[in-house]
Design goal:
- The chain has 348 residues and is an alpha/beta fold.
- The protein has 2 domains: 59 residues, DNA polymerase, domain 1, CATH 1.10.150.530; 269 residues, TIM Barrel (Alpha-Beta Barrel).
- Helices cover 34% and strands 20% of the residues.
- The chain is built from 12 helices and 14 strands.
- Strand 3 and strand 4 form a beta hairpin.
- Helix 1 crosses helix 2 and helix 5 crosses helix 6.
- The radius of gyration is 21 Å and the shape is elongated.
- The structure holds S-adenosyl-L-homocysteine (SAH) and iron/sulfur cluster.
- S-adenosyl-L-homocysteine binds next to strand 10 and strand 12.
């Protein structure tokens, strides 16, 4: 049966029209779905029961069930959700002082095969998430932020499991609904999509009506090192990737975030910092340095702190705004690259 909780405003208009109902009903249903995040037609009390019955006959809600949650000592919470076909995904509510962000997955697993990433190592690639499954994560995190922290969820990062631009059609549709003031109502300045650098996807991303923020995982100072750790560079070489980032038309107030995972002894020396700095000249960007987070699946080492600070200092001294990403949720394997949807014990 078709799903109801992935329909755009226009699609819902079409459904309501096909039932011969007045168009304001469409707006009411849209409201129930994406403002109130209901998961049953019964709750739509201002909709006549005859219309609710028609909807019930033709549509269902996306199956989405929380099976586990883990709370970190820093207050971040990792959720494990079960999907209709029995697959699992993780999403994280990140808490950094007053700032609450939702870290959203876009695929079950990931195809890209980055050598340092637990998602790929543990899960491989299973499938894309549907629009409904992407939105359900946001609904669940938004509800939890209100219930647990009495805070509104205003920030979203698409940095969970999967490569968002490898599922770009569903991502784009979900973003349209997330940004719509009559639906979720997020600000485009407060949503960031992170990609491993799919050039075709980046072009489509910037062709969107309202592109949100883009983060690109560069992770290496040159093509040789990048090829070793990110197979995606075979198809999309680093120089082509950086060139496209120099030419895309971004909103005047926005900058691209360049992510750089520091792997001890691999890409974290001062000479790597110099090479990286040279490479990104001309990209309107800020840099986010991420210390490698270990997982049982990976042979890499975290960088020593001195190298992280030295890397940052070099970039800052060369006028590149550079942050060191805080490790939120590390003790619950909820930090970057640690999401692996532990299947064993998932139901306990
Ligand atoms: N697939 C997308 C988004 C999810 S990964 C991407 O690769 O950008 C989110 C971020 O976590 C990326 O910047 C990625 O490089 C980083 N990451 C992956 N594995 C990591 C690990 N083990 N330690 C630290 N960061 C990691
Ligand atoms: Fe996929 Fe991102 Fe992990 Fe690479 S780092 S395997 S692109 S989720």
């Amino acid at each position: 049966m078709e799903k109801i909780d992935c329909l755009s405003a226009e699609e819902l208009d079409g459904v309501v029209l096909s039932y011969g109902e007045p168009s304001f009903r469409s707006r009411q249903i849209y409201n129930w779905l994406y403002r109130n995040n209901v998961s049953s037609f019964d709750i739509m009390t201002n909709i006549p029961s005859s219309l609710r019955e028609k909807l019930e006959n033709d549509y269902e809600f996306t199956y989405f069930e929380e099976v586990k949650r883990l709370t970190s000592s820093d207050g971040s919470i990792k959720f494990l959700f079960r999907l209709e076909d029995g697959e699992h995904i993780e999403s994280v509510l990140l808490r950094d002082g007053d700032r609450i962000s939702g870290c959203i997955s876009t695929q079950v697993g990931c195809k890209m095969g980055c050598k340092f990433c637990a998602t790929y190592a543990a899960v491989g690639f299973k499938r894309n998430l549907s629009v409904g499954e992407i939105l359900q994560q946001v609904s669940a995190l938004r509800k939890s932020a209100e219930e647990l922290f009495d805070e509104k969820l205003l920030n979203l990062v698409f940095m969970g499991m999967g490569e968002p631009l490898d599922n770009i059609d569903n991502l784009k549709k979900a973003l349209t609904i997330l940004l719509d003031d009559n639906a979720f109502g997020f600000s485009h300045r407060k949503i960031t999509v992170s990609t491993s650098g799919l050039i075709d996807g980046i072009k489509k991303f910037f062709a969107m009506e309202t592109p949100v923020n883009l983060a690109v995982s560069i992770n290496a100072p040159n093509q040789n090192i990048r090829q070793e750790i990110m197979p995606v560079s075979n198809k999309y070489p680093l120089n082509d990737l950086v060139n496209i980032l120099k030419t895309v038309d971004i909103d005047k107030r926005k900058r691209i975030t360049l992510e750089y995972v520091l792997l001890g002894g691999i890409n974290d020396s001062l000479s790597h910092a110099k090479e990286f700095c040279q490479l990104i000249k001309g990209v309107k960007a800020k840099v986010n340095l991420i210390s490698f987070n270990g997982s049982p699946f990976s042979k890499f080492k975290a960088p020593i702190e001195e190298n992280v600070l030295q890397f940052q200092e070099y970039l800052i001294n060369n006028n590149v705004t550079t942050f060191i990403r805080k490790k939120l949720g590390q003790d619950i394997s909820g930090a970057c690259g640690q999401l692996a949807a532990e299947y064993e014990g998932a139901d306990s």
